[in-house]
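Suppose you are handed a protein chain with no further information: no name, no annotation, nothing but its sequence. What can you learn? This example shows the usual starting point.
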Amino acid sequence: MVPELVRMSGITKRFGGVLACAGVDFTVRAGEVHALLGENGAGKSTLMNILSGVHTDYEGDVAVHGEVVRLRDPADAQRHGIATIHQELDLVPQLTVAENLVLGREPRTRARLLDRRAMQRLAREEFAALGIDLDPNRPVGSLRVGEQQLVEIAKALSLHAQVLVMDEPTAALADAEVSRLFEIIDGLRRRGVGIVYISHRMEEIEVIADRATVLRNGAVAGSLTPAPEHRPQLISLMVGRSVEAMFARPKTQKPAAEARPLLRVAGLTVRPRTPRPGRAEPDGIDLSVDAGEIVGLAGLMGSGRTELLETLFGAGPAARVTGAVTLDGLPYAPKSPRAALARGVGLVPEDRRGSALTLPHQVDHSMVLSALSRLTTLGFVRRTRERASVLDMMRRLAVKAGAPTAPVGSLSGGNQQKVVLARQLMTVPRLLLLDEPTRGVDVGAKAEIYQILHRLADEGMGILLASSELPELLGVCDRVVVLRRGAVAADLDPADVTGDDVLAAAMTAPGGTDR
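A reasonable first move is to predict its three-dimensional structure. Written in structure tokens, the prediction is:
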């Protein structure tokens, strides 16, 4: 019989009058991947925070290796062999990769000084085990989000944990990196490590998980063996209703004469004055977006998707830019985000917490931040108009918040993402740039965001959407442009290709050869 590493029995946790967990039973066995599913707000994070020693005031029992324990803090949980990779990155940007890896447990020399050689050696060993190539001396703040996620994974694995909690570990990873992570997880499973895997990506759960437990409204809604044939049942358990078509959109094919050119990019090349390691700047990119069209950007990590969007939003580094870009038939070369907004271009960045939101700020203040010029007269904000605009946007996007004055940090991930989207929509853009718009968002909120995008496109907005989720690109977009090392590798019709076709194009250089 496979031994239980962790047994949580009757876990109940309240925050004031809110019942976050209600009598939850949950176990983790040696050598298994146990998926924990549920919409944002279902109780997953609360349950795992109890297991990780973050919350100590709860009802019920937590047993580790058969012994009931009361984990006092995260360090105590680590001493009991429990490590957590959080969804939101927990790294210090100013420190190096190696320093982050050993933070709080730095190796010392006999003279009690920091042993930097040992730190770097440990970092290289952990990265070699993960099959990734990162310089231990690079500041973490200079890394892309996906690279920072890999540092988090290496940091957790370096603790030699027996129970590893992974909260959305692939949210910022492209498919090739996900495959590598799954190889690592298989190796951990063979060594008897128990893994709690939290993800909103059903395809991942079906590939990697041995069991799946679904939480809804703080209680266990059911448990199943993950498999494609069980997906509708799992989704139904998560959202309490049937989700028939995640990507449903009425396919109103417009005659070619009705398509209005919006964005045209020809030979766009960016040469930064100070090159930044890890970036793939646009290198001769040709693409177009028509009004009412959703164009997807696919590619592996380092393909240049984010760099292209930043360039189009005027948020890239100082650089020499060549090529031609037009918007509505007029030359377009924004020098700053302010200039891009003035031309009707909005951007939803991939890292909502790091680049788009200040969590203590109110929902209404966060929404109107980019559109204050539309709400002011002689420098004074018209509060009545501001409130009406916020309430209208919350209704349109179905933002679930206690009040417009609620802190953004009190919202679920999906609702935080809607606030970021609302901020851009309040500027009334003609072209909307989206970078990983459903990262860390549950299946129900994803469906809502897809419907919002479809509605915006039907209203005539052009949308350029970068995503590492192939089903999302194929299901939502009218076309998919595949990037590789800053260049266009393919321009595909989702109706004619599969995810394997997109991945093959992402791994093949323009001209048809792998380089």
